[in-house]
Amino acid sequence: MATTTTPAREGTRTAATINNARIPTTFKNEPSVDFSNPENTRRMRAAIEKVRNELGREYDLVIGGRRVKTAEKTESLNPAKPSEVVGLHQAAGAAEVEPAMQAALKAFETWKYCSVEERTNLLFRVSHLLRERKFELMAWMVFEVGKNWLEADGDIAELIDFCDFYALEAIRLSKAESPVQLPGERDWLRYIPLGVGAVIPPWNFPGAIMGGMTLASIVCGNTVVLKPSGDSPTIAAKFFEILEEAGLPDGVVNFCPGHGNSFGNSIVEHPKTRYIAFTGSKEVGLQINQRAAVQQPGQIWIKRTILEMGGKDSIVVDADADLDAAVEGVASAAFGFSGQKCSACSRAIIDERVYDKFLQRLKERVEKITVGDPALNPAMGPVVNEKAMKTILGYVENGVAEGGRLITGGSRAQDAGEGYFIQPTVIADVDPMATISQQEIFGPVLAVIKSHNFEHGLQIANNTEFGLTGAVYTTSDDKIEVAKQQFHVGNLYINRKCSGAMVGAHPFGGFNMSGTDSKAGGPDYLLLFTQAKSIGEKITK
Ligand code: UN1
Question: What CA–CA distance (Å, rounded) separates 246 from 310?
Fold first, then answer.
């Protein structure tokens, strides 16, 4: 329940307007930080120490520009050291639903008529500030979700890319024209905003996905109730601070970490919610879809749902493939960020002619993966929380019980410390229909499956209810063509790993139970946050 409110910080808007943000005309991906340069390593260590000193601070909800405290609080913990509180947060509940919605509705009345320049300049200022504070934000990811430096850099770089890409896309969309001009008429096509969106992001890309769905919303003229994940609210709070510093008007984004059941569900069900942008599990995505489908009293539209859900992503390795490249691609897609990506490779499907050789090399490669405190930049950090750790270890047991052969890993990585560390785990000889071959695990567990040949490998790859990412390793042009045609995934990669989509190059989103194929970071994405208004005017003078 809201107990106190205080005015938002003064003067942030003035500061933002003198900030000399770069306004790009063409899009370029943000380069990754080069940690072979000692200066960058020094900056990262300094940022980690700075953030370490700021752990445990309290953050408020921000509704209509006003700071709000609730009686109930939630803590976000460092998964590498759960005794360490990263941030203390308010917990939005039933009492905050109406204030948040009213603030967003009020802001919508003016924000929807703001010029495209005003909205896109805000995003360009945000990307400028993100670049300035990159190392600090990366350090927050190290502490709050256990990303190592490389993964944290990828996340922030993607967030910066989303700012510039969606701003440039909004400019492009604002210039859309009716394909035909009737004689005697002037004909227009305008992409107008939808209204208030509920943005419900996951913790695994606490910068990129949380920010991406929010930025796409507001650049199109919508306003947002943002409910970040309970595992990563501090990173969202830092992003929100940057939005304010860049000049975000009050109420355009309302920062509401809170409970899924009381706040999240109520905001999804609210009759004034126009759309829901969600990324997370299949179970929650389907529940949102169902709730959103019910017309509430006073609701005058069909709510739109933009849902990015799970994956069970495969890499198919042909007998003629470059095996070293395949081993490297599988290992990095399976164990990058401890396998906690919906794009992670969780099944390696290997031609029987190279199966043993592949497995041997993979084992050697995986056993070199260091596990430890992400502040020290090992190859792999912890998994996000205790519940996730238990679920993942349960899948390992199940995989072996259903006939899988444990090749390496399989337990907690005890030496790594008190955190939720799991050894990188490979289970071979997995049946294509086994539980660990069908269900999303979201952890560092790879199932290796034997196939008779490439075509059989593709059949296995297509045998789940998901269809998010996939990769094939082969040197045959014919097989590459077959994969392009038959591998039914939203993001297909050839001779490279199946994670690490780049904004613009690899619009991201999957088929089937992986979601609504929203293609984040692509030319179709903003259409999901707008509706087209066609105007035909008879020329009378
Ligand atoms: C997710 O894990 O929710 O391509 C998707 C990639 C990332 C995937 C994000 N952009 O690896």
Answer: 33
Q: Which atom of ligand 1 is nearest to the CA of 341?
A: 2
Cross-strand pairs, 81: 78
For the stretch 438-447, pLDDT in tens is 999 999 999 9
Query: Which atom of ligand 1 lies nearest, measured to the CA of 501?
Result: 4
Question: How far apart, in whole angstroms, are the C-alpha atoms of residue 499 and residue 493?
Answer: 9
Calpha distance 272→258 (Å, rounded)? 19
In a domain, 186, yes or no: yes
Q: Per the structure, how many domains does the chain have? A: 2
- What is the percentage of the chain residues whose pLDDT exceeds 90? 94
Instruction: Count the Cβ atoms, other than its own, within 10 Å of residue 115.
Output: 10
Max Cα distance, the chain (Å): 81
Question: Is 220 designated active site?
Answer: no
pLDDT band per the 50, 70, 90 thresholds, residue 541: confident
Task: Report the separation in Å between the CA atom of 468 and the middle of ligand 1, taken as the mean of its atom positions.
Answer: 10
Ligand 1 near 514 CB (within 6 A)? no
Residue 508 Cβ contacting ligand 1 at under 6 Å: yes
The amino acid occupying position 297 is: P
Closest residue by Cα to residue 63 from 262, 258, 298: 258
484 with 337, same domain? yes
Q: Are residues 175 and 225 in the same domain?
A: yes
Q: Would 27 be classed as within a structural domain?
A: no
Each residue of 335-372: pLDDT tens digit? 999 999 999 999 999 999 999 999 999 999 999 999 99
Query: Of the listed 163, 256, 342, 498, which one is catalytic?
Result: 342
pLDDT average, residue stretch 380-403 = 98
The CATH number of the domain holding residue 98 is: 3.40.605.10
* Ligand 1 centroid distance, CA of 360 (Å): 28
Which residues constitute the domain of residue 391?
313-502
Q: What are the backbone angles phi and psi of residue 163, rounded to the nearest 5°?
A: -55, -55
Residue 149 lies in a domain: yes
38 domain-assigned: no
Do 270 and 127 lie in a common domain?
yes
